[in-house]
């Protein structure tokens, strides 16, 4: 088993190197220089030449790549050209929003998708099954941005002044704020990485509000995330429901389930006690794989709901030619993806010995 | 209450540094400085030690007219604690509108000394304005609270919150759902909805801007003046304004909007005449039109409220009126501006200009003056000469004569096809008192009252980039800076005239080459420091001199300064 | 299902049964029969046929020129007019527009109809490209094995590590915003999926008896790959491809929505929504009509793909 993990880790290294290279190459392939993208039409040629030189963008690409690698090796993601601040600082600001959004969307997808899938397998071909699968099919077919716009319209305008009205954008209502943990816990003297981690956690409003007892603010943050989470979570929800259903149906055909059934166990007991546990194995894998899709969806969801998360910041960086942010953010996303899949692979190896290579 | 990890120790450090600076007195003393403050100085250290005025450059003066210096500023002197003298290289008729511009806000020199080097003043501003920054949750919102020590009328609503969304529909949604009190730039088709809604009010913003179609006169077929004239006559501008611009927008007859003095002298541009236009095209050898591109960017501006829709309309008109087949080439904003500056846009490009300050030189010189570069190909000498005369003169009759020639030459040579002045506006909840929209997009929220709520929430198009505006040019950023920082003059509420702000008056000598500004006594910065003449000298010097030790900014480009004052001291070698 | 659980694991006709490949006619008859027994596939096929019909006969179905501005052409036309159908009680003095008009006085119905062409062509072409390139890579990797397998599949891992939409946006921005570039960008980000599918089925059949037999009979390596091994990859590739086209239609719409497909004059569903998304509240029809069209198209491919999967290869059902 250890050998298997080591092998998977070794394989990851060239992939990570390739990612670093691709990220850099893609960022530099984007035409147009960042000067006018950032300074606008008022910038003169002289101002721009000076600007480009200041960021070292006039040097040959290989040299820039060398410098970038050197920087990365020392754990530095560089400074954003547009914001003139470290990319790590930007990440600490933007990542909590995306984490909150994707986790909520995923929780929604799992907590609704799995039961729906089980139910529709249990009542196969019943109206419930047909309805669920029609819903699942629709769910994966409707574009995130269309669904988001419709939800915003429905809950913010049509249901305005009813108890169901929900805010269409932003993270908190005006006047409401989640006090940072450092202040709540009197840790303002902290500095360096521990403080950065603390501030990072503070940025996850619902979580930090809950652990520091700011119930009202946490609830407000949650209300703001309901619509985005539904918009983002619908596709994974539909996929999870479909996979749960088909995976359960497949398992039900296997010998041990027939045996269980032959023992005279009721259908519900067969499903819950025997079949479901194994049927959920592929579901776990899919949840890991959905991460990339969720981040893709987050770009659109964050745009529609005006959330300053990683996806939107990255999209803005691409159109604004902020190379350093493009590099830093994509690198982080890609590395996260690789790590999550590594974990999924390894844990799958634990759960199902057949997967392990000889 | 900022959550970024490094601020609290920094504020302490800054305070210490400020004390040290105060104790040592200002390092650079000047022989020309007067001895005693003219008015009773309100601050503790100033009353115990005599005011020592600085001068910039510290020795001598800027080398007017000697390359590489291209600027108009010669020397800035703190004559006494409340008097600043600006010496210019030549007469400047637009001095007051320029010093009123928000990029030239006045900062405390000690605060700059303490907070410029590490850039912390970018999001920890210290100004004299009616609001102080309370919290900037990056990406999400910016919260201000009223400044108790403000020299003028205190802000009517105690808290102010800025939020942003680049989608007009989302801004309207937030306003309608009651989450915000005001929004900037509602969509063209939403204005009627707002006006019909009794719970909302619409504040129009006159179009102090111009949308035009440009082409490079060194690229075929635009090198033929008949083709350029044909386009000018072949576009039905009235139809564009009527159908695709908000109410209050007007067809542009001159390149500079007529609200600006000396703008509308000479002949109006060509009227719509498709028959004559087709004839001109035929004369130029294109009886059946030709193929080209319409190049534009998606950025929504006051002059271009709905870029793709207006571009499509122009495409349709070119086809219907002139037989010209154009494809729509939507470009990324930065790449588009680059290509424009480099003169490589080969088709018709849609661009525009919004006023920075109310003077024709702000519109015409940038586009058609001697320093306009390759945007439209080769500049026209007749236009350049007239513009040079116009900007250097302080005599109204001479300026009128110069801009008459300039406008007639622009009509004749058609460097660009002038289309429209786009109105826009802001929308507010009906219970917001004194709601208005500034022509420059510089609303003073301190004078508005948000019903009985204690927080006024305003949603604009985009997040401000920093709160030090000496190095900013984007309107969304300037608007936020204006809450915190003030300039010597400002633009009147609801108008375009320049009126005193931190200065009580600025007067010129006979040929308007020396301007003397008297500062308002008793003005305090948010950190309690007093405003004095040295603050003005340093605030200008850091923007002026590329070698100034306190020059930092966000991007370091300081692009507005050379735009308005001609050039930097110690310009970077290109 | 209580009485008759499907014997899912019992047979795997396409991969395990080499004889099947020698009876193509019967295989296809079985296949089509199998597909038609799947309700979802029938529904999907019906919607898809309708869409193809609309795309092919767009000029006959469209009521107006999709690019033609009606301002000054048609009496009484208004900007962003709501749908007006005379049969449903719209006043006769208003011009009839089934889905209303857009911001440039164009007929939305006609633009949606023509938009079917763009979406279907781009969807098929992008996935076709991905299948061809992906299959070539996957088959090569699986058949040759060793270091080549490692290098190729690690390359695929790298591409997979990026969120596909972001990678596609970056590619299009890098090479220039146009519909063709968007097509290739979507193709490129989809390649790894097909490479994996192809490699898996090559690995599954490489060592089977009939392949060994072919080798013993002196058939060349390449010939074996093409004639004996690849036919077995066809089913999973078709199933994956059908589902993939749905995804590609969504992605092209998303790219157009964020405005990186260039050429705005072309009637395209995603850009119709993107350009008019600020009109959601005062003219929702401009967004709903193409939004519905996208949903319907993706739905058709998903239903068909699901049906194909159930019919052809129950074991892929995970």
List its traits.
heterotrimer; A: 358 residues; mainly alpha; B: 574 residues; alpha+beta; 7-stranded mixed beta sheet; 6-stranded mixed beta sheet; 22 strands
Could you please describe the fold and organization of this structure?
The complex is a heterotrimer of chains A (358), B (574) and C (318). Chain A has 358 residues and is mainly α. Chain A has 15 helices and no strands. Chain A has helices at 2-29, 34-39, 45-54, 61-73, 87-122, 127-141, 144-158, 181-184, 192-203, 205-211, 215-252, 255-262, 267-304, 310-320, 323-351. In chain A, helix 7 (144-158) packs across helix 11 (215-252) and helix 10 (205-211) packs across helix 11. Chain A is globular. The termini of chain A are close together. Chain B is α+β, with helices and mostly antiparallel strands and 574 residues long. Chain B is 30% helix and 20% strand. Chain B contains 17 helices and 22 strands. Chain B has helices at 7-24, 44-48, 95-99, 109-115, 168-176, 191-196, 225-234, 237-244, 274-283, 307-322, 333-342, 360-368, 381-392, 396-413, 475-484, 533-544, 560-565; strands at residues 55-56, 73-80, 83-88, 131-137, 141-146, 159-164, 182-184, 200-205, 209-214, 250-251, 291-297, 325-331, 348-354, 416-421, 424-429, 432-433, 449-450, 455-460, 489-491, 498-500, 503-508, 514-519. Chain B has a seven-stranded mixed β-sheet with strand order 4-5-6-18-7-15-8, sandwiched between helices. Chain B has a six-stranded mixed β-sheet with strand order 10-14-9-13-11-12. In chain B, helix 12 (360-368) runs antiparallel to helix 13 and helix 13 (381-392) runs antiparallel to helix 14 (396-413). The longest helix of chain B is centred in the N-terminal third of the chain and has 18 residues, at 7-24. Chain B is globular, with a radius of gyration of 25 Å. Chain C has helices at residues 13-16, 24-37, 39-56, 58-61, 108-144, 146-160, 164-175, 179-206, 209-216, 221-229, 234-257, 269-275, 285-312. The relative contact order of chain C is 0.15. The longest helix of chain C has 37 residues, at 108-144. In chain C, 65% of the residues lie in helices and 0% in strands. With 318 residues, chain C is mainly α. At the A-B interface, helix 2, helix 3, helix 5, helix 7 and helix 9 of A face strand 6, helix 5, helix 11 and helix 17 of B.
């Amino acid at each position: 088993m250890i050998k298997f993990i080591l092998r998977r880790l070794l394989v990851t290294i060239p992939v990570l190197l390739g990612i670093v290279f691709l990220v850099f190459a893609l960022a530099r392939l984007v035409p147009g220089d960042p000067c006018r993208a950032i300074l606008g039409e008022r910038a003169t040629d002289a101002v721009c030449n000076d600007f480009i030189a200041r960021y070292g963008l006039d040097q040959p690409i290989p040299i820039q790549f060398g410098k970038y690698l050197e920087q990365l090796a020392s754990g530095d993601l560089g400074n954003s050209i547009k914001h003139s601040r470290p990319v790590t600082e930007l990440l600490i600001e933007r990542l909590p929003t995306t984490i909150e959004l994707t986790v909520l969307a995923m929780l929604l997808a799992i907590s609704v998708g799995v039961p729906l899938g089980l139910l529709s397998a249990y009542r196969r071909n019943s109206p419930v099954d047909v309805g669920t699968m029609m819903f699942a099919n629709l769910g994966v077919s409707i574009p995130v941005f269309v669904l988001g716009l419709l939800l915003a319209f429905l809950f913010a305008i049509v249901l305005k002044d009813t108890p169901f009205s929900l805010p269409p954008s932003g993270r908190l209502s005006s006047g409401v704020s989640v006090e940072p943990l450092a202040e709540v816990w009197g840790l303002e003297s902290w500095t360096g990485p521990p403080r950065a981690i603390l501030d990072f956690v503070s940025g996850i409003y619902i979580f930090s509000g809950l652990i520091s007892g700011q119930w009202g603010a946490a609830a407000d943050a949650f209300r703001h995330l309901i619509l985005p989470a539904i918009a983002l979570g619908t596709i994974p929800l539909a996929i999870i429901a479909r996979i749960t259903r088909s995976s359960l149906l497949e398992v039900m055909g296997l010998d041990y389930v027939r045996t269980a059934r032959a023992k005279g166990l009721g259908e519900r007991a067969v499903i819950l006690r025997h079949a479901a546990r194994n049927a959920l194995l592929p579901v776990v894998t899919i949840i890991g794989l959905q991460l990339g899709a969720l981040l893709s969806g987050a770009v659109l969801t964050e745009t529609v709901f005006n959330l300053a998360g990683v996806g939107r910041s990255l999209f803005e960086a691409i159109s604004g030619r902020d190379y350093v942010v493009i590099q830093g953010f994509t690198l982080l996303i890609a590395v996260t993806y690789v790590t999550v899949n590594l974990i999924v692979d390894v844990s799958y190896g634990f759960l199902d010995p057949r997967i392990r290579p000889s | 209450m900022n959550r970024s990890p490094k601020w609290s120790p920094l504020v302490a450090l800054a305070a210490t540094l400020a004390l040290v600076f105060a104790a040592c007195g200002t390092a650079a003393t000047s022989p020309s400085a007067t001895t005693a403050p003219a008015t009773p100085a309100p601050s503790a250290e100033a009353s115990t030690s005599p005011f020592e005025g600085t001068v910039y450059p510290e020795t001598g003066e800027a080398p007017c007219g000697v390359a590489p210096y291209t600027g108009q500023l010669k020397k800035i002197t703190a004559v006494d604690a409340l008097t600043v003298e600006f010496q210019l290289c030549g007469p400047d008729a637009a001095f007051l509108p320029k010093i009123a511009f928000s990029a030239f806000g006045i900062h405390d020199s000690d605060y700059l000394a303490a907070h410029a080097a590490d850039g912390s003043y970018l999001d920890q501003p210290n100004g004299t304005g009616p609001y102080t920054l309370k919290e900037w949750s990056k990406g999400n919102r910016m919260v201000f609270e009223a400044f108790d020590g403000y020299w003028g009328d205190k802000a009517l609503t105690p808290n102010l919150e800025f939020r942003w969304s680049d989608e007009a529909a989302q801004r309207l949604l937030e306003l309608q759902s009651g989450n915000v009190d005001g929004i900037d730039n509602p969509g063209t088709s939403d204005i009627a909805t707002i006006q019909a809604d009794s719970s909302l009010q619409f504040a129009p913003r006159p179009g102090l801007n111009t949308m035009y179609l440009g082409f490079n006169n060194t690229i075929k077929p635009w090198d033929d003046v008949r083709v350029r004239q044909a386009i000018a006559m072949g576009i039905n501008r009235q139809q564009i304004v009527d159908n695709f611009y908000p109410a209050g927008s007007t067809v542009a007859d001159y390149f500079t909007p007529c609200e600006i003095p000396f703008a509308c002298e000479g002949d109006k541009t060509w009227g719509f005449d498709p028959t004559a236009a087709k004839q001109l095209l035929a004369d130029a050898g294109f009886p059946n039109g030709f193929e080209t591109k319409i190049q534009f960017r998606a950025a929504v501006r006051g002059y271009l409220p709905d870029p793709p829709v207006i571009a499509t309309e122009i495409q349709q008109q070119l086809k219907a009126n002139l037989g010209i087949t154009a494809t729509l080439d939507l470009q990324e904003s930065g790449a588009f501006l680059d290509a424009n500056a480099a003169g490589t846009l080969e088709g018709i490009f849609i661009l525009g200009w919004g006023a920075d300050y109310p003077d024709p030189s702000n519109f015409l010189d940038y586009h058609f003056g001697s320093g306009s570069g390759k945007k439209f190909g080769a500049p026209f000498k007749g236009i350049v000469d007239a513009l040079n005369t116009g900007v250097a003169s302080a005599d109204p009759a001479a300026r009128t004569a110069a801009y008459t020639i300039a406008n007639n030459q622009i009509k004749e040579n058609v460097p660009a096809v002038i289309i429209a002045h786009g109105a826009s506006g802001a929308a507010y909840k009906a219970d917001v008192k004194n709601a208005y929209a500034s022509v420059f997009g510089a609303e003073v929220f301190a004078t508005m009252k948000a019903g009985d709520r204690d927080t006024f929430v305003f949603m604009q198009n985009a997040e401000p980039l920093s709160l030090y505006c000496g190095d900013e040019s984007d309107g969304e950023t300037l608007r936020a800076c204006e809450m915190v920082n003030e300039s010597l003059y400002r633009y009147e509420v609801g108008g375009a005239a320049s009126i005193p702000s931190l200065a009580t008056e600025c007067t010129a000598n006979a040929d308007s080459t020396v301007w003397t500004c008297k500062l308002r006594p008793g003005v305090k910065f948010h950190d309690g420091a007093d405003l004095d003449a040295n603050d003005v000298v340093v605030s200008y010097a850091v923007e002026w001199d590329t070698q100034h030790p306190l020059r930092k900014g966000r991007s370091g480009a300081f692009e507005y300064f050379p735009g308005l004052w001609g050039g930097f001291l110690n310009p970077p070698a290109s | 299902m209580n009485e008759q659980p499907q014997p899912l694991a019992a047979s795997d006709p396409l991969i395990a049964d080499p004889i099947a490949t020698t009876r193509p006619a019967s295989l296809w008859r079985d296949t089509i029969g199998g597909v038609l027994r799947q309700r979802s596939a029938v529904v999907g096929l019906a919607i898809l046929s309708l869409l193809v019909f609309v795309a092919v006969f767009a000029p006959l179905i469209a009521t107006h020129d999709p690019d033609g501005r009606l301002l000054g052409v048609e009496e009484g036309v208004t900007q962003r007019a709501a749908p007006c159908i005379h049969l449903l009680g719209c006043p006769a003095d208003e011009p009839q527009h089934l889905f209303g008009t857009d911001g440039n006085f164009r007929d939305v119905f006609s633009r949606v109809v023509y938009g079917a062409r763009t979406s279907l062509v781009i969807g098929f072409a992008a996935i076709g490209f991905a299948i061809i390139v992906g299959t070539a890579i996957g088959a090569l990797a699986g058949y040759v094995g060793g270091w080549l397998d490692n290098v190729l599949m690690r390359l695929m891992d790298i591409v997979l590590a990026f969120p596909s939409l972001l990678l596609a946006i970056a590619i299009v921005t890098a090479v220039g915003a146009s519909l063709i570039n968007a097509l290739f960008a979507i193709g490129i980000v989809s390649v790894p999926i097909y490479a994996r599918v192809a490699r898996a089925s090559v690995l599954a059949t490489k060592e089977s008896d009939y392949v060994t037999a072919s080798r013993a009979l002196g058939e060349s390596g390449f010939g074996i790959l093409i004639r004996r091994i690849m036919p077995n990859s066809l089913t999973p590739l078709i199933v994956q491809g059908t589902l993939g086209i749905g995804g590609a239609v969504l992605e092209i719409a998303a790219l157009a929505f964020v405005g990186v497909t260039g050429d705005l004059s072309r009637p395209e569903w995603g850009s119709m929504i993107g350009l008019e998304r600020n009109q959601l509240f005062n003219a929702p029809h401009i967004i709903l009509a193409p939004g519905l069209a996208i949903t319907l198209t993706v739905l058709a491919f998903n239903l068909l793909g699901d049906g194909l999967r159930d019919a052809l290869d129950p074991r892929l059902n995970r």
